[in-house]
# Entry
Amino acid sequence: MRDGKKEKRGRLPLFYPHQLLKRITDLDPQALWFMGVRGIILDVDNTLTTHNSPVPGEGVMDWLQRAEACGLKRIILSNNTPDRVRPFAEMLGLGFTANGKKPLPSGVRRAAREMGLSASETALIGDQIFTDVLAGRLAGAVSILVEPIEPETAAFFRLKRRLEAPILKRYQRRLTALGGRRPDKTEGGIK
Ligand SMILES: [Mg+2]
# Structure
């Protein structure tokens, strides 16, 4: 079995996040701090809010304040356009990079630098495997995948979700094999 081989080598496949959650608000910012994370890099669409919504999702403002209170720096990194990202980021009072080119790791590294951190001191939180998870993993960040807030209707997104499904299924099986323990960062073969 392919997964079995990878597991023997002790490496976490690049498409796997370090943690999978339903919503960003389910994440404990203090736990991130204890993992050595000092800054979080946030996707916008379907992570902080629904596609094209100008306001954050339920509980998101409070969660961002809790993260700040824990000492975590925060920045937005979105593949969407500046027209979409700027007003949203400004409303949250956060810096941002639009046209972020995820899954390329360069945007993650730049976002980390803007917070005065290295990528390995950051966690990237997003809802897509082929952009958010891959970008975070390639950059050496902690990767946290959240379920999309609402299903996308565009054909391009529906295709991506169909391609994600078998990866998520294998990931869930692996979590079960680990007895529910989430893979920690060292299993990914990254620092
Ligand atoms: Mg997204």
